[in-house]
Amino acid sequence: MRRVDTAVANADIYPDTARIGADGHVAIGGCDLVTLAQTYGTPLYVYDEASIRTRARSFRDALASAYSGRATVCYGAKAYCAPWLLRLVAEEGLGLDVVSGGELQAALATGFPTDRVYLHGNNKSAEELALALDSHVARVVVDNLEEVELLARLARVRGVRQGVLLRVGPGVAARTHAHLQTGAAETKFGLDIASGAAAQGVREILARPELELRGLHMHIGSQIADTEAYREGIDRILRFAAEMRAAGLALRELSPGGGFAVRYVPDDPPADAPRMAAEVARLVTTAATTCGFAAALPDLKIEPGRALVATAGVALYRVGSVKRAGARTYAAIDGGMADNIRPTAYGARYTAVLAARAADAAETTVTVAGRYCESGDILIREVRLPLPRAGDLLAVPASGAYHLSMASNYNLVPRPAVVVVAHGRPRLVRRRETYDDLLALERDGR
Question: How do residues 195-227 score in pLDDT, each as one tens digit?
């Protein structure tokens, strides 16, 4: 009997359109991954447009159903910032969080509506703040007292009044990797509530006529799988807002951040980021009611980054060699830590399939090693696969966030190409770097 297309195992780790064809090949967006690799080479990042649009709409719908006030979904561009993606995000009606002048410039280059752009960052330069003011961004999220004075001076010169949010530190340690905690005590981000620094920040912003304090922002971390830390942080930030009424704070906007977990490997717990966002919205309503803001709920801003794009992307690598070393079977690929630093930096785990042999029995435990000259360049410590052969194509799902945005040219290796697939058609959105690209900025100094 002829086999028909089937769904991949652990489908929620993969793009929505991922299928295994009758030939055993994995396809995404109606495009065979083997054919894509032959056409564009490897390493290659493949993004499924339909998955991103579906997730954007799911977040919008979740907030609309859970929050009676005005709610906005903002994509956190640091997860992956590229012109094609920013255009798609704009088309879906989302806002945009940027954390640098470069990300803001990318938004401007794509025509992203600047009245939906928010500038974040813990050490914004005068040039970045000037660009934000000249671009008329919706909000600058103020991080520290020095920034208050700098932004006010720049706004004064331009004769504008800039809307701002103040980032406050709620002193909440979310259950996640230590490197991903951003709301705990003694973090580098924002002004701490407990020490009185946040209250000073409110007073100093209110004293600058060039700045309009619209509300408060917090972010407690990334890869957060439950809402307990959000509940604690939201309670603290709304109690703080109530206390600051006497100083003149009118809480018109509130952002409890993003950081919703996604599932990377089969033994990760199930993840439903839009559902978590809806729960966070309900927590805001409850805390706002308790703290006296029920009559006029603040505009709510939720900031998914990873949760919007991670599982929409798949990384493709070519196996170059397979060897035994003691009890391990190593499959060496043509990518690794320079296009995905997360396993080395965070101990992040991934799974994989052989894109042309996805229906074969997975009888071997394999260690996937990167090509870079570091013993720590191990992409996957253990994964069950058919015994790989040189030339096999390895597909690593959940590769859409914090790979390309953190990629480097370590060992002077060119960075990968990127294609977007939709309705059976691939679009090359980033060509592969060349050796000439690597040397284009260098000068010999003679």
Answer: 999 999 999 999 999 999 999 999 988 888 888
Positive or negative CA dihedral for 335, 339, 343, 345?
A: positive
Q: Are residues 419 and 291 in the same domain?
A: no
**Residue 421 pLDDT level (bands cut at 50, 70, 90):** very high
Dihedral sign (CA 383, 387, 390, 394): negative
Phi, psi of 204 (to 5 degrees): -70, -35
Q: Which long-range contacts (CB under 8 A, 24 or more apart) does 282-288 make?
A: 282/66, 282/67, 283/227, 283/230, 283/231, 283/234, 283/256, 284/67, 284/234, 284/238, 284/254, 284/256, 285/66, 285/67, 285/68, 287/234, 287/235, 287/238, 287/239, 288/238
pLDDT at residue 444, as a whole number: 87
Looking at the fold, whether 30 and 139 belong to one and the same domain comes out as no
Are 45 and 117 found together in one domain? no
> Can you give the residue range of the structural domain that contains 421?
6-49+311-439
Q: Which CATH number covers residue 265?
A: 3.20.20.10
**Predicted structure pTM score:** 0.94
Catalytic residue of the set 31, 74, 291, 373? 373
Q: Is residue 445 in a domain?
A: no
Residues 198 and 259 in one domain: yes
Q: How many CA atoms, within 13 angstroms, populate the side-chain half-sphere of residue 280?
A: 34
Above 50 in pLDDT, residue 305?
A: yes
- Separation in Å, CA 436 to CA 121, 297, 372, 441: 33, 55, 20, 10
Q: Are 28 and 421 in contact (CB under 8 A)?
A: yes
**Quick check: is 373 catalytic?**
yes
Q: Are residues 226 and 303 in the same domain?
A: yes
**For residue 361, how many C-alpha atoms fall within 13 Å in the half-sphere facing its CB?**
2
Listed residue (271, 240, 266) closest to 254, CA to CA: 240
Q: Tell me, yes or no, whether 407 and 297 share the same domain.
A: no
Domain final residue pick, 253, 288, 307: 307
Q: Residue 295: CB partners within 8 Å, gap ≥ 6?
A: none
The string of pLDDT tens digits covering residues 77-132 is 999 999 999 999 999 999 999 999 999 999 999 999 999 999 999 999 999 999 99
Tally of domains within the chain: 2
Rounded to an integer, what distance in angstroms lies between the CA atom of residue 116 and that of residue 93? 9
How far from chain centre, in Å, is Cα 321? Answer: 32
